[in-house]
Amino acid sequence: MEAPHSSPAVDSTGTPGTGTPGTGTSGTGTAVTVTLTVESPEQMQDLGRRLARVLAPGDLVMLTGELGAGKTTLTRGLGEGLGVRGAVTSPTFVIARVHPSLVQGPALVHVDAYRLGGGLDEMEDLDLDVSLPESVVVVEWGDGKVEELSEDRLRVLIDRATGDTDDERREVTLMGIGPRWAGLRDELA
User: Fold this and answer.
1) Is 133 left (phi over 0), alpha (psi -120 to 50) or beta?
2) What is the C-alpha separation between 144 and 118, in angstroms, rounded?
3) For a designed S-S bond to 171, which of 51, 74, 119, 159 qualifies (C-beta 3.0 to 4.6 A apart)?
4) What is the pLDDT of residue 81?
5) What are the residues whose beta carbons fall under 8 Å from the beta carbon of 127, sequence distance 6 or more?
6) Residues 18-38 as b or e (16 or more Cβ within 10 Å = b)
7) What pLDDT score was predicted for residue 127?
8) Taking a C-beta distance cutoff of 8 angstroms, is the pair 171, 162 a contact?
9) What are 65's strand-pairing partners?
10) Ordered DSSP codes for 64-127
11) Beta strand pairing status for 29-38 and 96-99?
């Protein structure tokens, strides 16, 4: 299982975890960070629909979070917002699913890299580099495996309470890496 994200989101004043959009830097250049609180699975799916409005062919979205954090629920909302065919479900056992557009938009390529141990070399058979220019590629558990596909990517970190709890609240940190995501805060407003 993937280790939980351990560094808190930072807002524009440098204050951890306030829920206010901010900026930062990463090893590949400028990153724009937006942190949101999601109270329910319905709100997570709605966030996916909102994100879909800003996605375009060629976008790489990397989802990180514990098992049950809401990665597939978010992706289901992305699929609804993009107007793709087929129910968006976890691709854990098939590794990847392609959902063609029903509205002349980009296809959604939904990948679950949880069972893949290696980096991009192990994922070459999926031809993600071929799919990326005309699709929106969403990779669950992609950290350390797919960053080489694009210098511009949207990294989504979903933190939830762990242990025996019914708390559905999630802290969602959207980190837009690269020039493509410079206007992320404005696009989500």
Assistant:
1) alpha
2) 9
3) 159
4) 97
5) none
6) eeebbbeeeeeeebbbbbbeb
7) 57
8) no
9) 158
10) EE-TTSSHHHHHHHHHHHHTBSS-----TTTSEEEE-BSSSS-EEEEEE-TT--S-HHHHGGGT
11) unpaired
| Cα end-to-end span (Å), the chain | 34
What's the CA gap between 122 and 70, in Å, rounded? 25
Q: pLDDT (tens digit, 0 to 9) for every residue of the chain, 189 residues total?
A: 333 333 333 333 333 333 333 334 334 457 899 999 999 999 999 999 999 999 999 999 999 999 889 999 999 999 999 999 998 988 776 778 889 999 999 999 998 888 666 555 555 555 565 577 889 999 998 888 888 888 999 999 999 987 777 789 999 999 999 999 999 988 887
Q: CB of 62 within 8 A of CB of 36?
A: no
**What is d(CA 36, CA 11) in angstroms, rounded to the nearest whole number?**
11
Q: What residue type is 28 in one-letter code?
A: T
Q: What is the pLDDT of residue 24?
A: 40
Q: Which residue has the tokens 């290696």?
A: 118
The structure tokens listed for 25 are 């830097």
pLDDT of 15 reads 31
How many Cα atoms occupy the beta-carbon half-sphere of 52 within 13 Å? 22
